[in-house]
């Protein structure tokens, strides 16, 4: 438990920071350097001996009531199994993507405010708070997650929404490609001998594919040979991966080396992570491109693969010399930041930094505001409503009666007469004082100032 809860000191307690991802969720407290727990983003229910798994993010559209029930059970598990704190005592910071569905935001706010009765909730964009960990206001943030890879440029703390680019190439695509390669080419050693994997298992579970990818695969440098020349045989050694039941899966070196190439070779439209990054730069203002190219920040669990950042820089430099970008992007230098934590926890750490600031209560949505408005504002909404008059409607002058106009006229005439008399009286007194000051003793008071003798000589 947090230290303040044990000691019992006064003051506001540290906020709860939650980063809900498609595959994994990070949870912890503000003012801490790392999340307390990293858990899968699903819940399991056992009914009559049957275990059902429900994921927080589903591809199909859920009923709002079903989504409410899933989020309620999932957040209940976070509070009372992992964090072990009272939800009513702490503010909440939710790290979200800019493409987060509105239904999900509204449902999670409804769960936190109505079911758990939290004091306030702040939805922080994960791309923006990731820059807090580096202390820079400008950066081109590349988020390589589970379902998609998203690129969002941020200039001086402002997200350039029109330059957002995303491609459906991420961890899910890697798992599908890896499973296909293993089923077609890998062998399994069993008690009776060696057989193809497809004859022993129909498919591989998602958690096994994730473990094989993390433990055995890596990102190799780009093959620099001609396009028509076949790629040489891999020099990477094969490895044995243990399966259930004493079975041993043999993974070839070529599979280990070329699994991540799907992220950089592109999809059917020839879109890859490198092209998405450069396309995002092209949609930014021309005077911001150089600064953004020198401040690239890569986050997400997929970016933790060995050799990922080196391959991304290599692909960018090759594309900058291609005809597609050579005459449009005049960028010579590309630099990449190194986050102080692992790439999958960068967004959470940024939320923890923002949750420790004194400005958190002003930026958060309180429980009273939510109960009054029943909605969560986003970046598209304005807090101050502006009412504009139609252009065809003309401004009408106020009409005054004859008595009002006569009264105003008499008042103005009296004020003008008093003002003129005051000005004339003060000017005459000032003139007489000046004349008295310039006159010499023994001379008449009507005599004016004598002319300069030098001027008299010039006139003669």
From TrEMBL:
Residues 436-451 have a biased composition (Polar residues). InterPro entries: Actin, ATPase_NBD. Residues 424-435 have a biased composition (Low complexity). SUPFAM superfamilies: Actin-like ATPase domain. It comes from the Eukaryota. Residues 424-460 are annotated as: Disordered. Belongs to the actin family. This is Actin-related protein 10. The lineage of its organism: Eukaryota, Metazoa, Cnidaria, Anthozoa, Hexacorallia.
């Amino acid at each position: 438990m947090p230290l303040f809860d044990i000691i019992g000191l006064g003051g506001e307690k540290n906020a709860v920071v939650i980063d809900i991802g498609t595959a994994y969720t990070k949870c912890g407290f503000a003012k801490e350097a790392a999340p307390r727990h990293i858990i899968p983003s699903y819940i399991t229910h056992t009914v009559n001996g049957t275990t059902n798994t429900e994921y927080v993010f589903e591809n199909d559209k859920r009923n709002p009531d079903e989504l409410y029930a899933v989020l309620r059970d999932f957040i209940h598990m976070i509070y009372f199994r992992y964090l072990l704190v009272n939800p009513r005592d702490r503010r909440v910071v939710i790290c979200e993507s800019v493409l987060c569905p509105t239904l999900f935001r509204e449902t999670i706010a409804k769960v936190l405010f109505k079911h758990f009765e939290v004091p306030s909730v702040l939805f922080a964009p994960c791309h923006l708070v990731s820059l807090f960990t580096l202390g820079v206001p400008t950066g081109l943030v590349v988020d390589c997650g589970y379902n998609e890879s998203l690129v969002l440029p941020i200039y001086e703390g402002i997200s350039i929404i029109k330059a957002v680019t995303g491609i459906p190439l991420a961890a899910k695509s890697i798992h599908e490609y890896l499973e296909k390669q293993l089923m077609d080419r890998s062998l399994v050693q069993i008690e009776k001998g060696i057989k193809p994997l497809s004859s022993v298992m129909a498919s591989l579970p998602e958690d096994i594919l994730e473990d094989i990818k993390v433990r055995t695969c890596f990102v190799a440098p780009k093959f620099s040979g001609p396009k028509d020349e076949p790629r040489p045989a891999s020099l990477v050694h094969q490895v044995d991966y243990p399966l259930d039941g004493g079975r041993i899966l043999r993974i070839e070196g070529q599979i280990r080396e070329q699994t991540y190439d799907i992220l950089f070779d592109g999809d059917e439209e020839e879109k890859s992570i490198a092209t998405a990054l450069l396309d995002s730069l092209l949609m930014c203002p021309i005077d911001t491109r150089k600064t953004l190219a020198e401040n690239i920040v890569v986050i997400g669990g997929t970016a933790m693969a060995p050799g990922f950042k080196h391959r991304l820089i290599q692909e960018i430099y090759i594309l900058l010399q291609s005809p597609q970008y050579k005459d449009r992007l005049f960028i010579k230098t590309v630099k990449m930041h190194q986050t102080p934590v692992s790439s999958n926890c960068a967004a959470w750490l940024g939320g923890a930094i923002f949750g420790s600031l004194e400005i958190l209560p002003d930026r958060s949505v309180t429980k009273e505001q939510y109960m009054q408005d029943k909605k969560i504002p986003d970046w598209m909404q304005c807090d101050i409503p502006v009412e504009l008059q139609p252009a065809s409607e003309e401004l009408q002058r106020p009409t005054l009666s004859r008595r009002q106009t006569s009264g105003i006229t008499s008042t103005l005439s009296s004020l003008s007469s008093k003002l003129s008399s005051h000005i004339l009286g003060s000017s005459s007194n000032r003139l007489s004082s000046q004349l008295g000051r310039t006159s010499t003793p023994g001379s008449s008071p009507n005599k004016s100032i004598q002319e300069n003798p030098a001027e008299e000589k010039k006139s003669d």
